[in-house]
Amino acid sequence: MERQFNRKNQRGNETIMKFSYYAAGIAVASAAWCKSRSRRYPLKKGYAIMNKFVIPGFFLSRPVIKLANHFLNNMKLPDPPSGICKEIKWIETRDKQWLKFTLYKPEKLADSIPCFIYFHGGGFCLEDAPYIHANVAEYAKRAKCMVAFLHYRTSDRYPFPVPFQDCCAGIEYIFRNYETLHIDK
Q1: In the 3-class helix/strand/coil scheme, how is 16-70 assigned residue by residue?
Q2: Is 176 helix (H, G, I), strand (E, B) or coil?
Q3: Fewest beta carbons less than 10 Å away: which of 43, 107, 120, 126?
């Protein structure tokens, strides 16, 4: 009986030791990973953990991006909050394409107001999501300014630098038309 107890105890100790070795191996591998990522992608202090993440390549494949854009494109946009109106404009790009340009502004405009130009963070891959429109409308309301939101073409259909050039076209449009848009220059 005592022998059986010792064997079970010994097996338990072996299991604990194996677990300890695995845990130590994982800790060493994690430390090496963190050190290599910090060396390869240095960041400003305070952001140390941000360069440790990796997105698997298949998440950024063209079919996945197209599918995501399909869903984003078909989502219902929220209504702007009270006191804010939404105006859709279409602007022409350098390559003679038309881009949607949404302006969120206070319903009661002064002679001219400041303008905040907003480009959503889709990495030139993803289209804008409904929550972004809610945020942008809220910016216009709280800051009492106009928010110009350009819907750039995405790189799943238009290779870089087209999305970047779209953003430049939006800025140029605002600078050329600041008076008719009632923007304070």
Answers
A1: HHHHHHHHHHHHHHHHHHHHHHHHHCCCCCCCHHHHHCCCCHHHHCHHHHHHHHH
A2: helix
A3: 107
What is the H or E stretch that residue 166 is in?
Answer: helix 162-176
Q: HSE-up of 149 (CA within 13 Å, CB side)?
A: 24
Query: What's the whole-model pTM score?
Result: 0.66
Superfamily in which the 77-176 domain is placed by CATH: Alpha/Beta hydrolase fold, catalytic domain (3.40.50.1820)
pLDDT digits (tens, 9 = 90+) for 65-117: 888 878 888 888 888 888 999 999 999 988 899 999 999 999 987 788 999 99
- C-beta separation of 86 from 80 below 8 A: yes
Residue that has been written with the tokens 């390869």 in this structure:
40
Instruction: Give the CA count within 13 Å in the CB-facing half-sphere of 82.
Output: 0
What is the C-alpha radius of gyration for the chain, rounded to an integer number of angstroms? 27
Domain borders along the chain are 2-52, 77-176
Write down the number of H helices and E strands in the chain.
4, 4
12 SS3 class: helix
Which token pair is 3? 């022998």
